What does this fold into?
Amino acid sequence: MSCHDDGSLLSERTSPMVALVGSPNAGKTTLFNSLCGLRAKTANYPGVTVSRREGKVHLADGDLTLVDLPGTYSLTPVSPDEEIVLEALEGRVDGVEPPDALMVVADATTLERSLLLVAEVLALGHPTALVLTMIDEVAARHGKIDMNRLSRALGIPVVGVVGHRGIGLDEVRALLADPASWGRPVLSPPTSGAERSGWVASILQSSVTAPQMDERTRRIDAVLLHPVAGAAIFLVTMFTVFQAVFTVAAPAMDALSSVFDSLAHDVDSAVGGTLGSFLGDGIVAGVGAVLVFLPQIALLFLMLALLEKVGYLPRAALLADRVTGRFGLEGRSFVVMLSAFACAIPAIMATRTIPSERRRLATMMAAPLMTCSARLPVYTLMIAAFVPNRTVIGPIGAQGLTMFGLYLLGAVSGLLYAAILNATALRAPTAPVMMELPPYRLPSPRSVLLYVWDGAWAFIRKAGTVILAVTALLWVLLNIPSVTPPAGLTDAQAASYQMEHSIAGQVGTAIEPVFAPLGFNWQINVAVIGSLGAREVFVSTLAVTTASESEDALPERLQKLTDADGHRVFTPPTVAAILIFFVYALQCMSTVVVLRRESNSRKWPAIAFGSMFGFAYLAALAAHTIVAAVTT
Amino acid sequence: MRLSEAQVGDSVVIQGVVSTDHGLEVRLEHVGFLPGTVVRVERRAPLGDPTVYELRGFRLALRRESAELIDVVGGDDVDGIGGTP
It folds into this structure.
């Protein structure tokens, strides 16, 4: 391929690069997947959360690199995130090669709007081609597009496709074989709004009979957006998502957990000694700690993909927008927050469905405060051991009420946290909330499965290694140095002795003055350190540090546990402090890692961890003080 | 009148975006709220906000705060789904 003499982007690279540009819902990703399959990799632009996907298209005479840019209605940048996309197209970003040609992907049923984007792309002056998706729907809705006339009117090649059925893909491939031959308009379309509107109208007049509005969609919306029926369907749908992530994924997670537990045990006993313990409880358990999230992530992404691609998710967002809007979030945040009740990790990954960067960040920062399922074992242990099992009003018991209160506290705090962030750190002019309601469509199974695969694979690749490393590091902290316990101790006491003399044990003892105001002694501190891997580890670590014979015996052991002076360790103020601490502290390094990846910054995970830990400490201190004042 | 004042079922013609925030104006224009565009008020969300509008062959929901920035003229004499006034 030769250099053009007019300063175009065509360079002497061996494999040409074509960028796909199109609005959200235009079918860009479906086309990309049809052309590249699974041979795609995701890369972030430097410094922003925007990512692009790159794939290879195999053509008769060599490969072509296809770049899937983020969906956009326009190329005129308003935010830094959009600016970088334009800069990348113009070849102004270091380390990001500019494309040789641009392929605009537009929904044929909304051509009147899509042509506004085409006008902007043409103004860039690159070789350009237009791919119209969903041409079958245009015909079904009594519209007609004359591709040849449209192509002549625009001065660029135009191809119609039905992405998920593979119709028109051969023509697209034929186009991709020679991007240099694509047209450039002789006259750039006008840039001012009203004139551009006129330009679009004249193009449409030459070659298009606009399709009618989709009557079926209007009728479905009459039910799904109905004040009563719509609200009921919304609640049932959201409850189903929540319940499925919470309970359907649970057996798979338990199964994975027990497989890895026994595998870790086998490795430990087969290798033996400190090395065996490290390989088993450090490495194998670490791999398990990563994989255990997969059922939830896959299930949540499956449901989100179905709801999104059918067209319900935008409607659900519309219904919830009024409520979430009060906290500076948007409708789509609701679904994310709900899934965070199961686990913050898939929820943070699901914030990708939120178009506004600012509201996306606010949502992912607030998600860790929702009561995730890993807090449940901690709450259950404390409540079972220390909250009396008596009824308060009618069938409502004190234990259930405490649990409900903790859930409520987490949810309210999360929403307030989002509101505070919006008023402070995230305070900036923001994009208006614009929710496109696409026609209801049946998604292809392939596109749904690819969406699930993308989510699961991104988690393993981006977060997996770090979670594994954190688990291995925690093993080192909790088991090194290895000491020989004095004779005459039971196994449980020996294990406790070992942990007391580990690095974590020494740290836990050293920081006793810091946590003493909360009533935490070294045994609790070490369990808190251990829970950084995953909150539920608090329970198993506490069982070791308190030399409990088993986890089942733990509640009773904790009730009777005394310090060296014979004072009870788990007094009501201390129990209250532990519960409140776990409501707020971002006691989960996996979440921190995923926040780091999804926000593409170190700042946001640092702010989340720091502010939540700080507030957890103060709130736990307040709880300790108040409960102490009430109970003495 | 502003787009937020239009009733469900009304068709109105956009005059322009009235905002001191240039970014906001640009964004609304990006999705097609350009002068001369015909907009039909499709329905309001069950809680009264946002509202679904139909323009340029697609449906889009806007919050009241955004619709308040769009200047429109009443559409008794408006016909069809045109692009230019």
Summary: Chain B touches chain A at residues 21, 23-24, 26-32, 34-37, 42-43, 45-50, 52, 54-63, 65-66, 81-84 (CB under 8 Å). Confidence is low (pLDDT under 50) at residues 77-85 of chain B. The longest strand of chain B covers residues 11-17.
